[in-house]
Structures are given as C-alpha cells and as structure tokens.
Amino acid sequence: MNKADLVEQVFKQAKLPSKAAAKRALEVALKAIVDEVSRGETVTLARFGTFSPRARKAAQRINPRTKMRIQVPSKVVPGFKAGRSFKQAVARSLRVETGIGGKPTFRRA
Fold first, then answer.
1. Is 58 a member of any domain?
2. Total structural domains in the chain?
C-alpha cells in the first residue's frame, strides 16, 4: 500500500466529501506526528502504536567499498513501537514459515 492507496481507504471508510479532503486529512495527521517527534515529544495513538525520537550512540563501522573503519556519529532517529491491538491483528492474519535457505518468511493465515 502506498500513500495514494491509503488516501483511497480514508476517503471510502471515513465517507469524506472528496479524495482531496482525505489526502489533506492524512497529510495534516502525518505532519502533526512528524512535528511532535521532531520536537522530542512522543505521540501515542491508542491501540495503534507510539512514535518517539530515539538516540543512537556513536559506533565504528566498516565501509564496504574501502574496507576501512569509519566512525559513525551519534544521532537521533524516529522510532515506532506497535501497540498491542496492532500486533494482535498482524499475528491473527499472518503465519511464519520457513523460506529459502531456512530464512523465516510469512504468508497469510
């Protein structure tokens, strides 16, 4: 699903007057989440999940092209933790199975 598909779902399920109204509503909601997390705040949507800023510590990595060690500075990244209802909905709908090379994959239940 991409943004256009999500706008279509919001338009149909919320019975908004137009797709433009649905697109604007989605954009405003997403901007509010980005703005709050960018200010260091946490956004919790009950039964869906929590968006929050997360600190990553500095680390040494290896540049795959040059094979040289590089220092990656600490930084703040956006994080998301799924809520219980979201996790339960996914668990009810999908099943884990073994894929190629023993790698776990999933399929619809």
1. no
2. 1
